Structure formats: structure tokens, C-alpha cells
Amino acid sequence: MFLFIISGIVFLDEVDKISSKKGGQFQRDVGGEGVQQSLLKMMEGAVIKVPDLSGSGKKTIDVDTTNILFIFSGAFSGLTNIIQRRTNIKPFGFTSETPEDKEGANATDTIHQSDTTDHEKDEILRAVEVDDLVNFGMIPEFIGRIPVFAVFENMTTEMLIKILKEPRNALIPQYETLLEMDGAKLKFEEEALVAVAEKAKESGTGARALRSRLENILLEPMYEAPNSDIEEIIITKDTVENKTPPVYVQRSKDLVVSTDKFVIKQTEPPSMKVMNPPQSQA
Length: 282
Description:
The structure is a single chain. By secondary structure, the protein is α/β, with parallel strands linked by helices. It folds into two domains: 3-89 and 127-144, Rossmann fold, CATH 3.40.50; 157-266, Orthogonal Bundle (Helicase, Ruva Protein, domain 3). It contains eleven helices and seven strands. It has helices spanning 30-43, 79-87, 99-103, 107-125, 130-136, 140-144, 157-165, 171-180, 190-203, 208-224, 237-241; strands at 3-12, 47-51, 60-72, 185-188, 230-235, 247-252, 262-266. It has a four-stranded mixed β-sheet with strand order 4-5-6-7. Helix 7 (157-165) crosses helix 9 (190-203), helix 8 (171-180) packs parallel to helix 10 (208-224) and helix 9 (190-203) crosses helix 10. The relative contact order is 0.08. Residues 92-116, 255-260 and 271-275 have low confidence and may be disordered.
């Protein structure tokens, strides 16, 4: 028998999926409650038996979880409704608008209204208490072993734009590299980036929706670019919102004004040296 004393961090995502109540109905979910019960012993710090996967799987290893930090996360969809019923917090507070105000609002006002609504939801979640999580479906024994609760704010449009451009494995640099392999340069207008972020934000799935939005936008350019004379691809706001074709800048010797989606750019061909053929010896 081997006893492994381990120190580290265990992160478990989507813990809200093991709640014991589904859809707000007071019906016991034996599966979800059973999973919570099985986690209690390792959360409080004890020696548990873990299957030894290096062998046949029949042997077990004793692991001490006293020095392991457990972090749980989840979306907890519907938790705001439970908190509102307890605190009587209105979802929109003093920022609620009448139908007449909504009719006269422009696109910029709509964007700020969306950000304000997300901010108000964040404020509601900051008032969460243990009883709210119990009403959501987490058993008291499980919640009692979690000493600290933290609320992550909803991502704003500016955050989504940074995710598109700044990380080391950001999406836009990836697509730029792919199109450079075909000899084309990809360019996003700033208004187009804002539109992509807004579209992804409307889906409610966070940054996961950015890739699907970019795939739909760049599907045609990635098909047109290989083995073509396209030098640059410009993604505009209309391309994102109205699904209009992007602007293609094409290599050509002469300048041609096109009425279609192609814009021909004048480029001077490189000078070529003509070599004299070798003279035959007499």
C-alpha cells in the first residue's frame, strides 16, 4: 500500500450541472445529489482511494487531499431569479425604459443598454448567499465546505475585442497567418471588430461564439484566396452585420474600376533582365 501526500489545485467546471433540482421544480435528482455526496469526503481533507491507471486498474492508491485546494465554477443559469425573489431587486432598476424610449433609441444606446443590463445582473449575483445556492439545488453539506464565493462579471464588448486580437493564440492572428500562406493579407476594420463582438455577445455563450462568427465571415474569403490574384481582404461592418461580400484588393498591372466586390490595385511588375544568348564559336 502506498500513501501519496499531494499538494495542488483541482478545478472542477460546470458544477451547477450536478444540482439536485432541475428546472426549478422541487423534484429530487438522485444522480446530481449523489455526485455531490461523493465529493464531500475529498473536499474536507481525507485519504481517498484512487484507481491505479498505470496497471490493470484493479489496484488502488491512497491519496491524501488535505493539502489540495478545490475550486468549483459554473454558470448557474437561473440563480439571479432566486436572488431577486429573496431580495426583491428589480432586474433593471432605475434604468428601465418605456416603450416610447425604446422606439427612439439608436444603435449606440442599444449597445450601452446591453452593457448596463449585464452590469445589473452582476450586481444581483454579488448578493448571493448560501440559501440561494441551496434553493438552486446544491446540498447544504456541499456548500458548507466552500468557504469563499466569487462572482465573475459578464464580458463586455471591449473584452471580447481584446480576446480577438491580443492573446498569443488569438483568433484574428490565426486567420491572418492562414491567409498569408495563400498570399493574401487580412484586414478587419475597427467597426467590424465591434460588430463581431456584439454578435458574439448576443449569443450568450461568451467568447466561445467568436470562432463561429469568424468562421461564417471568412468562409468565402478562405475559398477565394487560394490560387488567385487577391492581395488584400478587407472585412467591413456591412460584411459582419448584413453579410455583404468583403472588399477584395487584387493584383493587376492596369488600374480597373470594378462595380462588383473586387477592387483592382495597380502594381508595377518587377523589371526583367534579358540575357543575350551565348554566341556560337566558329
